[in-house]
Every structure is written in structure tokens, then in C-alpha cells.
Amino acid sequence: MFVSLQCPNPIINGAEQHSEDLSLSSFTGGATFDATFNLSFGAGSSAATTCNNAGDFSQYPVVKFNGPATDPKLTNNTTGEHIELKGLTLAAGEYCDVDFYDRSVLKGGSTSVYNYVTSDSTWWILKPGDNSLTFSAASSSATTCNVKWYDAWI
Question: How far apart are alpha carbons 138 and 154 in whole angstroms?
Fold first, then answer.
């Protein structure tokens, strides 16, 4: 008798899901006008935040970009990689979920907007230990993104 066991995902996740919010409130460049235009002026970047994967194996994050935002981008400063959704505009109250394990990009939780992922974007991971992340967008209003992950062991 021969028994074969297969484990498609051998990662053991920690019991607690971690969450980190990155706020985008400072904008540089651009100009202000007393009139309303259907254009975005200026761009913003958050301060770097640290996400700690206390396990011994890399983990895939899940990111939620909240509107209002245009061209949201999340950079993993630790690895030098980023994911950018160029051309995507999220109105106030809208959001986009990016699942790095499933490699899915869903606006409002159901509509695929994968076509906005730039060709130089990568599906990066959170390495064991501290990972420095920065959120940026071409926008004219304060906005946030949220990063969720579990500690991972193998």
C-alpha cells in the first residue's frame, strides 16, 4: 500500500491577523484653484510604517486602498518592490482589495480591475522580521490604505 499526502500551501499562519493603516494626508507639488476641475493636482506619500512578520517564513499581505485616491501605490522599502494601480480612480467611499497570494485586484470586493496593475509591479511578500512600507497616490484629498497579514512559519 502506498499513501501520498500533498500540501499545496504548507504555510502555518499565526492565530492573530495583524493590521496596519497608512494615512496619506501630505501632498507635494501641484497647485490650488478657486474653481473645480475634473483633474487631480498634486501627489502624496505616507510616512513609512513597519509591518513585522514574527514568523520564520515569508507571508503574502492583503491590501485595501480606500478612496478618494488616484493611482494608488504601495512600496515595500525592504525589498525595493511595489504594486501600483496606474489609472485607477477611487471615489470617496470606494475601495480596492489587493490579495498578493491570490494575485487578485477587486474594486468594491467583486469587480476585477487587474488591468490597472502596472507592468513593473510585483507580487511581493513580507519577509520574516520588520518590513518597511510606504503608501502613495496621485490625489488631492486625504486617504488611507490598510495592510493585513499573519505571521508565517513553515
Answer: 39
| Residues spanned by the domain of 57 | 20-29+42-153
In a domain, 77, yes or no: yes
Residue with cell 482589495: 97
Indicate which CATH number applies to the domain containing 107.
2.60.120.860
Q: Grid coordinates in use for 59?
A: 507571508
Locus of grid cell 512600507: 133
List the helix and strand counts (H, then E) for the chain.
0, 14
Instruction: Enumerate residue ranges in the chain where pLDDT < 50.
Output: 40
1: in domain: no
Name the 3-class secondary structure at 114: helix
pLDDT (tens digit per residue) in 117-128: 999 999 999 999
Q: Please name which of 70, 78, 71, 74 lies closest in space to residue 62, comparing C-alpha atoms.
A: 74
CB within 8 Å of 93: residues ≥ 6 apart: 67
The distance in angstroms from the start CA to the end CA of the chain is 28
